[in-house]
């Protein structure tokens, strides 16, 4: 895996830990490039994922769906698709752009994703998934991984899961799987309900590791603290955290020291905000709206006096015409332990 120059000189480079040890999940409409840059200020070594990008968007869309900042490494692209040739072509595009990993989405249960014949419904087509992985592996040299569920609909036996993993590993050559420890209902539940209603079964993922010890297995689903992450790492190779990392990003500020044996990037959350300001200024100069960036920062000060005022001030002011970094500084001054911000003193 290719790390940024920053990461190469960091103490963790000398350890045996891989970035797969801890990651933040790909989340549609959430983990965009602004979010990832912000999260990288909190942790240098956590593996970050893009939002899911479909092969159709990459091959036929007009936007640059592969754009990112070099500071975001280590960075994985999550692809949605089910045609081996198209996925291989997209994997080559991503490798040329410098991505560190390609991940195939075999876990999303939304109707839109199913209509495109990808996501969780592909668990019913393990041979096709294997062919997709094999095609991408033949096209690129970077790792190809799969994010999946423990089952779908009534096909939720442990045997079904093992058959899927075995086929994709042996025929496709995939050696790394991220397992959301819930099954998915392909109809009757919304994507949000599919993240909450099917019961978690962590033991099933632990058993999978015991039965496939040579595979790299990471677990996802319902994990909210670093204490929980450490407990899962007693049994598995990696942990992926989703919405908790987004809604309470401050939790990531101690990942490097606790899980990677490295120094944490910043002493406190206020220093993270200050480090974010040059990026915000650059983006504003290129036409980005402040609110498109600061929406990812709202949960940073959970539990800190003044956190509600921080969130309210950003929410009410970041979308106003001409809003700039002074809005962020004013919001920061709402925290109880800080003196009021004065533009003249900045």
UniProtKB/TrEMBL annotation:
| GO MF entries | flavin adenine dinucleotide binding; FMN binding; tRNA binding; tRNA-dihydrouridine20 synthase activity
| Alphabetical list of InterPro entries matching this protein | Aldolase_TIM, DUS-like_FMN-bd, DUS_fam, DusA, tRNA_hU_synthase_CS
Keyword tags: Flavoprotein, FMN, NADP, Nucleotide-binding, Oxidoreductase, RNA-binding, tRNA processing, tRNA-binding
Give the family, as the similarity comment puts it: Belongs to the dus family. Belongs to the Dus family. DusA subfamily.
Q: What is this protein called?
A: tRNA-dihydrouridine(20/20a) synthase
Residues annotated as catalytic: 108
Q: What is this enzyme's EC?
A: 1.3.1.91
PANTHER family hit by this protein:
FMN-LINKED OXIDOREDUCTASES SUPERFAMILY PROTEIN (PTHR42907)
The species this protein belongs to is Acerihabitans arboris
Q: Which gene encodes it?
A: dusA
DUS-like FMN-binding domain ranges (all copies): 24-328
What's its job?
Catalyzes the synthesis of 5,6-dihydrouridine (D), a modified base found in the D-loop of most tRNAs, via the reduction of the C5-C6 double bond in target uridines. Specifically modifies U20 and U20a in tRNAs.
PROSITE patterns named among the record's database cross-references:
UPF0034 (PS01136)
What cofactor does its activity depend on? FMN
Site (Interacts with tRNA) residue list: 105, 192, 195, 308, 311
Annotated catalysed reactions: 5,6-dihydrouridine(20) in tRNA + NAD(+) = uridine(20) in tRNA + NADH + H(+); 5,6-dihydrouridine(20a) in tRNA + NAD(+) = uridine(20a) in tRNA + NADH + H(+); 5,6-dihydrouridine(20) in tRNA + NADP(+) = uridine(20) in tRNA + NADPH + H(+); 5,6-dihydrouridine(20a) in tRNA + NADP(+) = uridine(20a) in tRNA + NADPH + H(+)
Q: Which residues bind FMN?
A: 26-28, 78, 147, 180, 220-222, 242-243
The source's domain of life comes to Bacteria
């Amino acid at each position: 895996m290719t790390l940024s120059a920053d990461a190469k000189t960091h103490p963790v480079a000398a350890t045996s830990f891989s970035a797969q040890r801890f990651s933040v999940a790909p989340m549609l409409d959430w983990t965009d490039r602004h979010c990832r840059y912000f999260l990288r200020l909190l942790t240098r070594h956590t593996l970050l994922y893009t939002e899911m990008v479909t092969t159709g968007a990459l091959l036929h869309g007009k936007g640059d769906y592969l754009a990112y900042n070099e500071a975001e490494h280590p960075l994985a692209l999550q692809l949605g698709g089910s045609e081996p040739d198209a996925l291989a072509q997209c994997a080559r595009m991503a490798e040329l752009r410098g991505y560190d990993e390609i991940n195939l989405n075999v876990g999303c249960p939304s109707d839109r994703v199913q209509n495109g014949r990808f996501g969780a419904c592909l668990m019913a087509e393990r041979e096709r998934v294997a062919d997709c992985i094999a095609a991408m592996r033949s096209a690129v040299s970077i790792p190809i991984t799969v994010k999946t569920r423990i089952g779908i609909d009534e096909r939720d036996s442990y045997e079904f899961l093992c058959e899927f993993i075995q086929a994709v590993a042996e025929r496709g050559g995939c050696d790394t799987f991220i397992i959301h420890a819930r099954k998915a209902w392909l109809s009757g539940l919304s994507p949000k309900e599919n993240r909450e209603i099917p019961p978690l079964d962590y033991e099933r993922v632990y058993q999978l590791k015991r039965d496939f010890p040579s595979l790299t297995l990471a677990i996802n689903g319902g994990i909210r603290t670093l204490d929980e992450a450490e407990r899962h790492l007693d049994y598995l190779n990696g942990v992926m955290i989703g919405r908790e990392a987004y809604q309470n990003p401050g939790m990531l500020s101690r990942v490097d020291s606790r899980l990677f044996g490295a120094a944490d990037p910043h002493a406190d959350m206020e220093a993270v905000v200050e480090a974010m300001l040059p990026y915000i200024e650059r983006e504003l100069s290129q036409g980005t709206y402040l609110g498109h960036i600061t929406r990812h920062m709202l949960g940073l000060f959970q539990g800190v006096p003044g956190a509600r005022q921080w969130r309210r001030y950003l929410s009410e002011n970041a979308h106003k015409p001409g809003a700039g970094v002074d809005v962020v500084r004013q919001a920061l001054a709402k925290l109880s332990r800080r003196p009021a911000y004065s533009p003249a003193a900045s």
